[in-house]
Amino acid sequence: MRIHIATDHAGLEFSTRLQEHLRAAGHDVVDHGPIEYDAVDDYPAFCIRAAQAVVADQSSGVEALGIVFGGSGNGEQIAANKVAGIRAALAWNEATAKLAREHNDANVISIGARQHTFEEVVFLIDTFIATPFSNEERHIRRIAQIADFERDGSLLPDPRAARGH
Is-contact 81 37, C-beta < 8 A? Predict the structure, then answer.
C-alpha cells in the first residue's frame, strides 16, 4: 500500500522513524515534508499535499492512505480534511484508530506526536492500516451524505422543520 505522510516540527522525529517501520513492512512511503526541523514551520501545506496525493492515488485505483502528525494532531487533521475526498480522523487509542476505518472509511489518520510514545504511534498506525472498512449500509449511507455536502452543499431535510422548529 502507498502511504503518504506529512508532519510539522513536533512530529518530524516520529515521521522519520515511522517511515522506516512502514517501508520495512512493505509499504511504499511518500514523505510530503518537512525534510528538516524548523520550530516555526507551517504544517498546512505539508498535510494538504499529502491529502491531495491520497485522493489522487485512490482516484486512479492505487491503494493509498495518509498519516499526518503534529503536536496534538488537531490542526493537521483540520488541514487534511479541507481536501475534497478526504476523511481524516484523529486517533488517540486503539478504538478510535479502528472505528475511523470500520465506520468512516477514513483515508487519513492524524496523531498527536506529543501525546504518545513512538511505540503507541506505531500501534495506532498499524491498527489503522490493517482495519478494513465494514461496508455496512448505514456507514456507506452516512459517508455518501458527507460527500454530497462536500460536493454541492446538499443535506437531508431537517426533521425538526416538520415539527415547526
Answer: no
